[in-house]
Every structure is written in structure tokens, then in C-alpha cells.
């Protein structure tokens, strides 16, 4: 995969002189670019560049535009959100090692461009459902950092009141966090059916990993979605490994965007936040125009193991991880493009970094000191609308509790 970007130059009157000056500076960059420039528009300065290898098409005559752009404000917003997800996962990593988080814990570090880029192209009433690597998506779907970290530590101000933990987080139009491998795909098709049944111009994004791509229920969902032309964007977040097994060893066809002969597919460079946003715009327009579902494969990488119980070094080398961090990191590469284009200064980035660090520290302190739910709360939220004085049985025939919610 070619991850290098060709930056479009629109030179001002003194542009030749500025370009020569920039070439003479010999900037040391992991993203070799021809030059950087900012185009002026009514909305303010705009970064734009070509990403010629950002997409591959399956059963599509044309795909998203290879010319991507963002305003200064959008660039700052995307950078901040990716940093929040990255630092939030670093906090979860530390709290898990300190045994403040128990059970399963799957981190999203390295995949931030997907959740940030996709959400930027979604409507506020679109729905989303994902697998157990859910923390980044939970935050992007409207849950605060405090709500995520408090849920991880099992506290009552968590987004699921401490009942769900790492794999079972929910929010507005966000249907989890699902622990059963691949089960979110047919559920997502059902949510998309609801959108169509109600006549809503919205889509459901159903995300799954490369490890779940071989599940039978995934193909059953594809079949039903195509038959009923459901507005569902099926997204395979391909981070290269299903648990500890590489895609090359687990899948006879590792081109997940081509896995269905009757649904069009789109391969996307999942490490470029702007390419992800442009691809999502295309996919959403496809679904809402009545053409039915579409499959997207987001090529990405995870920096940690499959879960916190997996060191992630027995099936890949440390050098492999470091190479991706150095050459393909979604946050560092996007930051560098903004700096090269002189759209944002290093001091501004430092200010954002400090702000995000403080946000995460405050949320972490809250998550550690927030009280847990009382034991009697185990009996609540079993029924959606329990009648008055309704009792629910405990673990034996002699324990009954009144419930009110």
C-alpha cells in the first residue's frame, strides 16, 4: 500500500520564490511531498492534496474522489479527536495493568483515523454498531471520556452504569460494543432495516474485524441486506490480525472488500483521516440513494495485542509495530501535513496536546474514585417496563427483590 500523499500546490504571486525557499529547507519528513500550500476560500484556508492510492474498487464504475481537503478548523478538530482516543486508550492500558480494569479490554490505538473520519461524514441520526474494540467509537458516538473510563472501571457514572465494561458500551444511535464475534453484522442489518421501514434517509454502519469476516452470519446478513436493499455500510476494520493469526493465514481471500459477488466494495487507506471521510461520504450517498448496501474495507493496524492479555509480540516483531508507528501513524502523518501546509503551528498542536492530557487525567481520576453500583442494582434493567411491586428472583428460590426500573 502506498501511503504517500501528493500535495496540490496553488501558488500565490510570489509562489516560485516561496517554493524554492521551502525546498532549500530540506524538511525531514516521513511523508515525502512535492510541496505544501494553503488555498484560500470563503470558509478560510484549506489544506488539499491528492491521495492516488487511497481506494480500490469492486463492482463500482467510479469511487470517491482522490482529491481530499479540509479547512483549518476541521483539521484541528480531527487532530484533537484522534488524540483524545489515543490518550484515552493509553489511560485504559495503564489502569488495566494497575488492575483497576478487570475482564476483557481491547484497545483501539492505531485505528483512530477510522472512527474520526467516518463520524465526520455521518448524519447525527445515522446508527452504528461495532464489535468489542469499541472505546474509540463510543467516544465518537457522543459518550464522554469520563463515561468511557468510568464504564471500564465498573463505576455507576459509566455509560452503561458500570454493567457492561469494555465490550458493552452504548449511546444515542450507538448499539454497542458486542462481545460475540460477528454478531453485530446481522444486528446492524436489522437496524438498517428499521431506517428503511420508517422511511428515514439514514444509514447503519456495521463494523467488524478481519477475524470475524469468515463468520457465516456475516454472509447471511450480506444476502438479506442485498435482497431488501438495506441502507447498511458494512465496514471491515482490517488491522492485519484476527487475534494472533494474520489475515494471510486465516482467509483464502484476504481482499475483504471483494468478498461478496453481489455487493459492491471499496478498499480504503484507513490510516488517512481525510480519505476515510471522503470514502464514507461516497458510501453513505450510495446507500441513501436506494442502491442498497456497500462493503468497505479499512486497511489499518493495531499497536497493542488483540486484548490486554495478549502482548502482541509472539506473532509479529516489535520492529513491525515500530515501523508502522514511524511511517503510517494516522495522527503523526496528519499533523505533519497540516504543519507542512503552514495551516497549524507546532505551538497550537502543543496547546491541544496539553488540553487533551488534562481532559484524560480528570476523567481517569473520576473513574478511579467514582463509587460502584450497590449489589441490589443487579436486579434492575432486566425488564423494560416492570409493573408496580414487581419482584424478580435471585440466584435461588428464596431470594426475591422488588424492582422499579
From TrEMBL:
UniProt entry keywords in alphabetical sequence: Oxidoreductase, Pyruvate, Thiamine pyrophosphate, Transit peptide
Assigned EC number: 1.2.4.1
Pfam family for this entry, one: E1_dh
Domain called Dehydrogenase E1 component: residue spans: 80-374
GO biological process, one term: pyruvate decarboxylation to acetyl-CoA
Coiled coil: none
Source organism superkingdom: Eukaryota
Reactions catalysed according to its record: N(6)-[(R)-lipoyl]-L-lysyl-[protein] + pyruvate + H(+) = N(6)-[(R)-S(8)-acetyldihydrolipoyl]-L-lysyl-[protein] + CO2
Cofactors, names only: thiamine diphosphate
One example GO MF annotation: pyruvate dehydrogenase (acetyl-transferring) activity
NCBIfam families in the record: PDH_E1_alph_y
Function of the molecule: The pyruvate dehydrogenase complex catalyzes the overall conversion of pyruvate to acetyl-CoA and CO(2).
Protein name: Pyruvate dehydrogenase E1 component subunit alpha
Organism listed in the record: Rotaria magnacalcarata
Amino acid at each position: 500500500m502506498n501511503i504517500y500523499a501528493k500535495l496540490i500546490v496553488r501558488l500565490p504571486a510570489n509562489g516560485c520564490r516561496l517554493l524554492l525557499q521551502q525546498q532549500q529547507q530540506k524538511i525531514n519528513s516521513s511523508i515525502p511531498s512535492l510541496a505544501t500550500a494553503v488555498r484560500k476560500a470563503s470558509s478560510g484556508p484549506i489544506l488539499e492534496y491528492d491521495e492516488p492510492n487511497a481506494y480500490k474498487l469492486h463492482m463500482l464504475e467510479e469511487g470517491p474522489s482522490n482529491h481530499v481537503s479540509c479547512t483549518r478548523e476541521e483539521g484541528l478538530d480531527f487532530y484533537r479527536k484522534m488524540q483524545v482516543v489515543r490518550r484515552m486508550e493509553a489511560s485504559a492500558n495503564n489502569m488495566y495493568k494497575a488492575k483497576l480494569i478487570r475482564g476483557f479490554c481491547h484497545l483501539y490505538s492505531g485505528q483512530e483515523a477510522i472512527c474520526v473520519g467516518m463520524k465526520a461524514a455521518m448524519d447525527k441520526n445515522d446508527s452504528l454498531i461495532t464489535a468489542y474494540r469499541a472505546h474509540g467509537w463510543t467516544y465518537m458516538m457522543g459518550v464522554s471520556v469520563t463515561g468511557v473510563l468510568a464504564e471500564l472501571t465498573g463505576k455507576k457514572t459509566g455509560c452503561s452504569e458500570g454493567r457492561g465494561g469494555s465490550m458493552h458500551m452504548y449511546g444515542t444511535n450507538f448499539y454497542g460494543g458486542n462481545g460475540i464475534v460477528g454478531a453485530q453484522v446481522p444486528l446492524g442489518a436489522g437496524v438498517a432495516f428499521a431506517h428503511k421501514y420508517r422511511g428515514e434517509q439514514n444509514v447503519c454502519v456495521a463494523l467488524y474485524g478481519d477475524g470475524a469476516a469468515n463468520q457465516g452470519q456475516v454472509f447471511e446478513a450480506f444476502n438479506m441486506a442485498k435482497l431488501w436493499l438495506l441502507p447498511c455500510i458494512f465496514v471491515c476494520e482490517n488491522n492485519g490480525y484476527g487475534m494472533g493469526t494474520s489475515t494471510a493465514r486465516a482467509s483464502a481471500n484476504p481482499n475483504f472488500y471483494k468478498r461478496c459477488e453481489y455487493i459492491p466494495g471499496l478498499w480504503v487507506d484507513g490510516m488517512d483521516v481525510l480519505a476515510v471521510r471522503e470514502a464514507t461520504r461516497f458510501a453513505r450517498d450510495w446507500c441513501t440513494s436506494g442502491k442498497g448496501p456497500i462493503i468497505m474495507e479499512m486497511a489499518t493496524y493495531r499497536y497493542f495485542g488483540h486484548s490486554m492479555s495478549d502482548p502482541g509480540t509472539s506473532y509479529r516483531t516489535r520492529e513491525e509495530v515500530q515501523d508502522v508507528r514511524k511511517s503510517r501513524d494516522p495522527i503523526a502523518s496528519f499533523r505533519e501535513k497540516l504543519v507542512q501546509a503552514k495551516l497549524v503551528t507546532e505551538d497550537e498542536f502543543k496547546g491541544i496536546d496539553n488540553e487533551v492530557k488534562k481532559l484524560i487525567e480528570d476523567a481517569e481520576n473520576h473513574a478511579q474514585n467514582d463509587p460502584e453500583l450497590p449489589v441490589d442494582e443487579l436486579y434492575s434493567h432486566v425488564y423494560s417496563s416492570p409493573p408496580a411491586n414487581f419482584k424478580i428472583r435471585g440466584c435461588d428460590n428464596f431470594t426475591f427483590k422488588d424492582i422499579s426500573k
